[in-house]
Amino acid sequence: MANRRLASAEQQPANFAFTPENAEWAKGQIAKYPEGRQASAVIPLLWKAQEQHGGWLPRAAIEAVADQLGMPHIRVLEVATFYTMFALEPVGRYWIQVCGTVPCDVCGARELKQMLHERLGPPGHVDPTGTFSWLEVECLGACCNAPMAQINQDYYEDLTPESLGRLMDDLAAGRPVKVGSQVGRTSSEPQGDLTTLTDETLFDGSRIGAWRKRFEAEGLHEEGAELQAKADAVAADAAAKPKAAKPDSGRATESPAAAAPAQRAADGKAPVEPAEAKGQAAPERSTVAEPRSGPEAQPGPQSGRSYTETPSKPEEGRPVAETKGSTEEAGAEPIAGGRTDGAQAKPVGADPGDKGPPGPGSKGSSKTSSNR
Predict the structure, then answer these.
(1) Residues 6+ apart with CB under 8 A from 347
(2) How many whole angstroms separate alpha carbon 1 and alpha carbon 82?
(3) pLDDT by residue, tens only, the chain of 372 residues
(4) Which of 48, 116, 112, 139 is nearest to 86 (CA)?
(5) Cα(140)–Cα(149) distance, integer angstroms
(6) Residue 135 in 3-state DSSP?
(7) Residue 247's closest CA among 224, 225, 264?
(8) Do residues 19 and 61 lie in contact, with contact meaning Cβ atoms separated by under 8 Å?
């Protein structure tokens, strides 16, 4: 890449000013941006200044654009020296910018640069007639049709050293030239003959909807064939690997499965145990009580009271606890037999001498409480 420096002082003009037409155009560009953002118009104004000055930017033009936009001179100089679209030195009437980045380089850009160097001289040098000058630049965005070059404002693609030489001859002679691809490619078509989408009926509208029906029919046919193949594979696998009968299949078992005839046959044993055939239990299915060691624990009473057993026959009567005063301590005789059917019970107060249980304030109550 060439150094991005301003031309020598001998080549610099004393001043620069837009023509009335270009000045009016510049005002329209500045008006596109909101107040305080006029600096955003720096690139279009530099481009117009370069176009007016014969294809390159002098120092006076850079400073005039900076003053019009209210920007420091160094800020506009930074923009002009960064972009290769701005020429900082005099150029020929046809300025050839050759892309030298990877896509163009691998497709033949080196040969183009070698041819230009032999015909015109080093980059940035103008030929003696002032017709041509050239420069290697960064990517110009036409990688699909590499290698390519920009001549003034037009793109020329799919170049070879021979086609670029003929193109330069036609420009120098004033003959018309072909802009774009030099081999007849349209947009980003593949190099060489077309290999896809060659049916013209795809573009004239005569087959609209037909392709959809064809693809749907083919898809249904393929889907049916695939399903049939899967079904055949499953059937073949099932026939090759029959499953043995397992009655306990799918059941969570914590003990050995029942020795059913089918299960025993699946395990390779006789369907019926010899012991079962004789009416005896099979040893593995017998329940044996485990002997206990040590004295058997007796459950203790739940409280200090004793209870009598309820008879299983109601006519025998139910043993009841002895009534108050029937004990020897009270001086009464025990009931014969120790049982009662309820006929001997007397309601409280039926006997004039029976005043019922002593109240809480009586002497008997305090004695009973003390005995307790």
Answers:
(1) none
(2) 12
(3) 456 788 788 888 889 999 999 999 999 999 999 988 999 999 999 999 999 998 889 999 999 999 999 999 999 999 999 988 898 888 889 999 999 999 999 999 999 999 999 999 888 888 888 899 998 988 998 888 999 999 998 999 999 999 999 999 999 999 999 999 998 887 777 777 777 777 777 776 666 666 667 777 777 777 777 888 888 888 887 777 766 656 555 555 555 555 677 777 777 777 767 666 666 555 555 555 566 665 655 555 555 555 555 555 555 555 555 555 544 544 555 555 555 555 555 555 555 555 555 555 555 444 444 444
(4) 48
(5) 8
(6) strand
(7) 264
(8) no
In the numeric block, which tokens belong to residue 305? 């009271």
**159: its two tokens:** 């170049």
Q: How far apart are CA 96 and CA 136, in angstroms?
A: 9
Maximum distance among all Cα pairs of the chain, rounded to whole angstroms: 162
Going from the C-alpha of 261 to that of each of 173, 216, 225, 277, 279, the distances in angstroms are 109, 56, 44, 12, 16
Q: Count the Cβ atoms, other than its own, within 10 Å of residue 340.
A: 16
Cα(299)–Cα(294) distance, rounded to whole angstroms? 15
Q: How far apart are CA 223 and CA 182, in angstroms?
A: 48
Can you list the pairs that 247-252 forms with residues at least 24 positions away whose Cβ atoms lie under 8 Å? none
- Distance, CA of 226 to CA of 136 (rounded, Å): 58
Q: Which tokens go with 225?
A: 């064939």
Q: Where are the beta strands (DSSP E) in the chain?
A: 94-99, 132-137, 148-151, 154-157, 180-181
Say what the pTM is: 0.49
Distance CA 168, CA 161 (A): 11
| Amino acid present at 258 | A
